[in-house]
User: Fold these one by one.
Assistant:
Number 1:
Amino acid sequence: MINTKNLNDNKKMGLTPQQRKEKVAALREEHEDYFQIEGKIDALYIPKMAYRPKGKDELYVSFFPSELEKDENIYTEFVSIDYDIEDPKRTLYLHKYNPHWKNEYELITSSSGFQRHLIPVSELKVINDVTDRNKSDVISNNDLRITEDMEFDLPNPDANPSTDLVNKLEDINQSIITLTKVINKLIK
């Protein structure tokens, strides 16, 4: 796991733009396999601080208008104000692009004059976390889909009477083993 704390030794001065860029790049490395597998090589990844604003009952993240104006899905994870990891599971979230963001998300202005839109954490979709990424047999969404109308080719031992019954039973056994592996991967 990357320790991003050592990328910012001068906490009182805040992060420089270069330090922020380096920390975001280091944080993104954890999720790069997901982006590659899903074909989202240029995915918009913006780590954010999750917090409970005064007068609110739930957690929010906030995005600058310039970030939402990109008209893209945003991938995020929870970090501190100094871009240090806040979630030991390194959960990757998706904020699906909302074309009505200007009207639907509350606009707040910070004490330093910066405007941001509040988005409830409950609207973020969990993509995966370290426990998902550490499974040796993780299946990508594009690798396998099982549907109701899917047929499995199970041989019929009665279809060819000249074939040895033991061979047919072995074929059925192998099909059942394959099917069991597929089901086990889906339920993990």
Number 2:
Amino acid sequence: MHETTALPAERHVVAPDGCDVRVLLGRPGGTFAHFSLRPGGVTVPVRHRSVEELWYFLSGDGVLWRDDGADAAEVEVRAGVCTSIPLGTAFQLRSTGAEDLTAVAVTMPPWPGDGEAVRAAGPWAPNVEPGPGLGEA
């Protein structure tokens, strides 16, 4: 089956970390979505129980913190930067620019639902509300 879609004008949901999500397309091996975080926004730090993600940033400026248990690091993100969130990695985003920090991401396998993302310890105090389905560690 062939599918085509356009970026929806309104978000579908708020992610467990607090980003706005516009779902694009999905296949049995993964899903593709658009994420945005307002200027000055700081997400809730989370980790995933069973999925990995690849993110490609489209606009804005920010910092992504990741901690896989052996190595914690911050990386600056902006249009053209691609990052990975390996299984079990804690992560948090901070939008530092004057426009929304936006990215498209592939989630592999597809997002299974509530409880997939669990709260983690992170470097910054979040200032956005988590979306539904955030589990406890």
Number 3:
Amino acid sequence: MDRRSWKVLAILVLFFFLLSGCYYFGAKKEIANAEKLLSELKGAGGEKLVPYEYTSAEKFLEISKWEFTENDFKDTKEYAIRSQSAAQSGLSEIRKK
């Protein structure tokens, strides 16, 4: 391979490493946000007041963490966002009561 081909290959490899790093940090951030919202929901009595939303948020977070250990960062982020949505919904229901 000539020098130009090596440069192109090196740039592509670097690009893919950077892209995978973005998914990693994005997934970590979404998990942290989901944990925070779930903690708020638990503190507000979500286990008893809104059991469906609480359980949904908890299980989506659990799946998200499992996907993270499998290095599937795209699914990790999606499940963490679902967890946040369920927790937000639970918090909204509690505030209405």
Number 4:
Amino acid sequence: MAAGVHAAIGLDHGSTNFGSLAMASAAVQFGLAAAIMLRRSGQACRLAVMVSLVLVELYVVNVTTGLPPLVAHSHSGTTHQIFGLILASPAPVDGEGILAKGAELGAILTGVLLGRSG
């Protein structure tokens, strides 16, 4: 599900850096889901857990403090500095993000459980 949300976000944001990163996330998530469904391996499960953890963390940082403008998704277009690092203003929490993060949290739990049993 998270891969589908990222693909939709990527298509919606076109050829921007954020859109390209969303499409890359979707491709990785689709690929890992296929790999786990076709041939469940502990390595694929661990990789899916790690990718999901990174994506959840990036979202939390993006909506709390902001990410560098090159990769951030912010509707305000303003920036601020933290420890000399220029960051985009935090993005708003939205339904797409909540849906994707819920699916990624589910993927983390599923990956941990499948990784233990396989």
